[in-house]
Amino acid sequence: MSTVDAPGARFRAALAEERPLQIPGAINAYAALLAARAGFRSLYLSGAGVANHSYGIPDNGTTELNDVLIDVRRITGRVNLPLLVDIDTGWDDPAAAVRAMAEAGAAAVHLEDQVPAKLCGHLPGKQIVPVHEMAGRVKAAVAGKPSPDFVVMARTDAAANEGVDAAIARAKAYVAAGADMIFPEALHTLADYAKFTAAVAVPVLANLTEFGQTPFFTVAELRAAGVALVLYPLSASRAAAAASLEVYAALRREGTQQNVVEKMQTRAALYDVLGYRPPETPSRPR
Q: Which residues have C-beta within 8 Å of that of residue 20, sequence separation ≥ 6?
C-alpha cells in the first residue's frame, strides 16, 4: 500500500476536502455500506457501539482490544472509507493497540483521559487521570503509529469536572505529547468550541451524540466556531434499534408483519447496497 493509499492519508485528505468533516458511526459492515451510500467520506466505530450492539453490555470499559478489532476488520474489509476508532483509554498498552488498529485497516484512533473503568462521556461521575498520565498514554500511542499519516486523537473529558479552561490546558499538554487532533467531550456552547479551537493548534472534533450534554449544532455553526470534525457516533444505530423494537412488538402483538412491512428495506434494496445480483431463475424446458 502506498503512502497516498494508506488509511491515515485518506482520512487526512477527507479532512482537507470537507470542513468540518462529518463522521457518522457505523456499528457493523452493513451500516458502513449504508453510510457510504449516503455520501460520507469517513466512518466511526464507537466503543459504546461495540459494547452495546456487539456484546449487549453497557459502555463501562468491559470490552477489550480484541473485541473492537473484530468489528474494525469487518468494516475495513468491506468499505474503503477511512475509519476512526474509539480505543477507550488504550487498554494496557496504547502502542500495541495502535499497531493492531493500523494492521486491521483503521485510519485513526482516539483515546481518552478517564480512568480505565470509564463511563460514557456524557454521564456524571467521570473520573479523570492526572495530566502526566494521559500525556504518557498519548506518547505511547504515537510510538505505535505505523506512519506519520496515521492519526492519534486525544480525547479529554475534563470540561465536566475541571472546566473548559482546564480542559484546554490538558489539550495543549496532549498536543505537546504528540496528539494529532483533539476531542473535547461534552462541551455545552459554540463559545466553548470557539475558545477551544482558538487555543489549540490542531484540528478539534465536536461530538454530537444524542441525549447528551452537547446541543445539536449545525455543520455551519460548528464551522464558524472553527471545528474541524463533527461526530455522530450512534445516530443511525439508535434509529435502527427503535425501528427494530417496533417491528418485534408488532409481530408479537399482531401475529403478522403485515402492518409494518412497508417500513422494512426490501430484498431488492438490500441486494443493491450489497452489490449482489442473484442468479436468474432458469426457464423451464418446454
A: 206, 219, 222, 223, 227, 228, 229, 230
Q: Which residues contact 10 (CB under 8 A, 6 or more apart)?
A: 80, 81, 82, 107
Catalytic residue check, 59: yes
Contact 43, 23 (CB under 8 A): yes
CB 75 within 8 A of CB 64: no
Contact yes or no for 158/132 (Cβ under 8 A): no
Express the helix, strand and coil content of the chain in percent, nearest 5 each.
45, 15, 40
| DSSP β-bridge partners for residue 211 | none
pTM, 2 dp? 0.94
pLDDT score for 116 = 83
**Which residue among 137, 155, 193, 232 is the active-site one?**
155
Provide the pLDDT for residue 61.
83
185 tagged catalytic: yes
Q: What is the pLDDT of residue 96?
A: 98
pLDDT means over runs of 10, the chain (286 residues): 79 98 98 98 97 94 95 98 97 97 98 80 74 97 98 96 96 98 97 98 97 96 98 98 97 98 96 93 64
Dihedral sign from CA coordinates of 177, 43, 46, 238 = positive
Return the number of other C-beta atoms located less than 10 Å from residue 243's C-beta.
Answer: 13
Q: Is 73 a catalytic residue?
A: no
C-alpha triplet 225, 187, 82: angle, nearest 5°: 70
Residue 2: predicted pLDDT: 53
Instruction: Check if 132 is active-site.
Output: no
- Cβ atoms of residues 196 and 168 within 8 Å: yes
10, 12, 71, 88: the active-site residue: 88
Annotation marks residue 223 as catalytic: no
The predicted pLDDT at position 115 comes to 87
